[in-house]
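Fold this sequence, please.
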Amino acid sequence: MGRSDPGRVAPAGFLGTAAAIVLADQATKSLAVERLVPYHLNPVFGEWFRLTLLYNPGAAFGLHFGPWSRWIFMALTVVAVVTMWRFYRESATDARVRVWALCLVTGGALGNLFDRIQSERGVVDFLDVGVGAWRWPTFNIADIAVSTGAILLAIVLWREEEEERIAPTTDAPIGASGGAASSASDVGPTRA
């Protein structure tokens, strides 16, 4: 049995973290459906933070494809989850922040996928923040995980790209300027 790399997040850790996000998301959505009346405003911190039960048949920010939305978003979610798993498998062993970002996106995507599978009404949203008429679109725990993970992943990928751009290249052929081989003039005079 091979030893695992202590710096790498094991597949069980990746899947366990994603599953914990799904469980937290589904539990809070279940409570919202059980205790809130749809479209009724329930102030928590005045007008700034409210609980408002809504069902979103589309995607973030009201993106909608008509009667096919449910199936299109389910298919896109499956593709996204498979892609996140591939990114995880291809991640370097020391890329812990990248892996946690992938866990967040995967868990959040699965949480909203389960809503779409369970009901034609769409994803359960219930967190409502804003001031007066300036409101953020109502969201849920899965949305927080996806958004946080996506932002974190974008930062990590940008930093990786910057590091690759400024890192010295090691692909120079031997004998090229700055390479390992040296010419006779570099060594000094030779004896005949």
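Residues 178-188 have pLDDT under 50 and may be disordered. Helices lie at 11-35, 69-90, 96-118, 141-166, 184-187.
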